[in-house]
Design goal:
Blueprint: E1 2-11, E2 14-19, E3 25-29, H1 36-48, E4 67-75, E5 81-89, E6 95-98, E7 101-102, E8 115-118, H2 124-127, H3 130-142, H4 146-172, H5 178-215, E9 222-227, H6 239-252, H7 254-260, E10 271-276, E11 279-280, H8 281-284, H9 287-309, E12 314-317, H10 326-336, E13 342-346, E14 355-359, H11 360-370
Parallel strand pairs: 3-13, 3-14, 8-12, 12-13
Antiparallel strand pairs: 1-2, 1-4, 4-5, 5-6, 6-7, 9-10, 10-11
Helix pairs in contact: 4-5, 4-7, 5-6, 5-9
Length: 371
């Protein structure tokens, strides 16, 4: 996938800006706070209908505006043209148009423009709460597996319904409600499907991240393990048997679930373990090791997407070179050179033959001229 052109109107600190990246490695450089990350975020909006730094849509408005619009023109590896427009106003919902046709729900668009991101703030994937790691694995699989995405959305809906009923039963001090069995059966079915999808991904990805460490010449032994909240879940190889395990669990913990007013077992309670030399990276890794792990995780994701989809994802890498030595930077650039299109931000120019660099100040000058 190649981004040919993108324009921003009232998006963060860009009142009016157009960018035309080239194929290969593109670098946007300039001082902190000048709008480099915002340019990456606009591309991410076109790909996944949201930002990647956890900001709400309203936070992406230029300070004096009441709407923003981002328009992107993309070309797939097979030559298919995609024109994406995403708009937000304070008065109505966000809208997405692809080739001039409105798309609803937004989940239908996920996977159309495969996209990989790196941001220093994402170290929470390694060091933060389990929800950060669940978000990573769900986003990673959803871009390559439509069934997984649909299951994930349905699981959240069913889980909310079951939890609401559990809370009602807790308040009424009653345990007799046939509806609870219906929600438990449905939840068990989807939970099994999601768990099997995650298991398959982790098994595959554990190998990939080890390969990427060797490709970057990092002499450490990384690993990923799936930590399921359902005892024995990882032992099952058949989805139907796993569904039965979940259903048995929901029945056996029903009293406790009602007392707590929430479902205590399922994919929403699972976690990933990131390892270095067999030890938990969250507890034992240095800041440099954590950053390297995250970079390798993201670069491995690019390879995974390319092979799974037959389409090279766009890589959006924010401030990826900070705190890295020149040797590590060189190896990363060599790997990126084997990818499709990458857009990188940095506080300084990197004068390499395979990098197309542009200063953020050139965009600022154009904005002032238009004003």
């Amino acid at each position: 996938m190649i981004l040919q052109r993108i324009s921003y109107e009232n998006f963060r600190n860009h009142r009016s800006l157009t960018y035309e990246p080239e194929e290969g490695i593109n670098l946007i450089y300039g001082p902190n706070g000048s709008g480099k990350t915002s340019m990456l975020e606009g591309i991410h909006y076109c790909a996944l209908t949201k930002g990647f730094v956890s900001a709400g849509d309203g936070d992406c408005l230029e300070w004096s505006a009441d709407f923003f619009t981002v328009r992107g023109e993309f070309r797939s590896d097979a030559g298919r043209e995609l024109q994406v427009q995403i708009s937000y106003t304070k008065q109505k919902e966000k809208q997405l148009f692809v080739n001039q046709s409105e798309v609803k729900p937004f989940s239908r668009h996920v996977g159309s423009i495969p996209c990989i991101t790196f941001s220093p703030s994402e170290t929470g994937i390694v060091t933060g709460m389990p929800s950060e790691r669940r978000k990573f694995i769900d986003n990673a699989i959803s871009q390559t597996d439509r069934r997984y995405l649909e299951d994930l959305l349905e699981y959240r809906r069913v889980l909310a319904q079951r939890n609401a009923l559990l809370m009602q039963l807790s308040e009424r001090k009653t345990r007799n409600d046939a509806t609870l069995s219906v929600w438990s059966e449905k939840l068990a079915e989807i939970a099994a499907s999601i768990t099997m999808g995650r298991k398959k991904f982790v098994d595959d990805f554990s190998v990939r991240i080890g390969d990427m460490y060797r490709e970057l010449d990092v002499r450490e032994d990384p690993g990923i393990v799936y930590r399921a909240s359902l005892p024995g879940a990882l032992e099952e190889e058949q989805e139907e048997r796993l569904r039965g395990r979940f259903l048995d669990r929901y029945r056996s913990t029903e009293e406790n679930d009602i007392m707590r007013g929430q479902t205590l077992t399922g994919p929403h309670r699972d976690d990933l373990g990131f390892l270095l030399g067999g030890r938990d990276a969250r507890r034992y890794a240095s800041q440099g090791q954590i950053r390297t792990f995250l970079i390798c995780l993201k670069l491995s994701q690019q390879r995974f997407y390319g092979e799974s989809l037959g389409e090279s994802p766009i890589c959006l890498l924010d401030d990826i070179f900070s705190e890295l030595d020149s040797r590590r930077i060189q190896r990363i650039l060599e790997v990126l050179g084997t990818f499709g299109q990458s857009v990188i931000t940095s506080t300084e120019n990197r004068k390499k033959s395979n990098i197309k660099a542009i200063s953020i100040e050139k965009f600022s000058d154009k904005e002032e001229e238009q004003g």
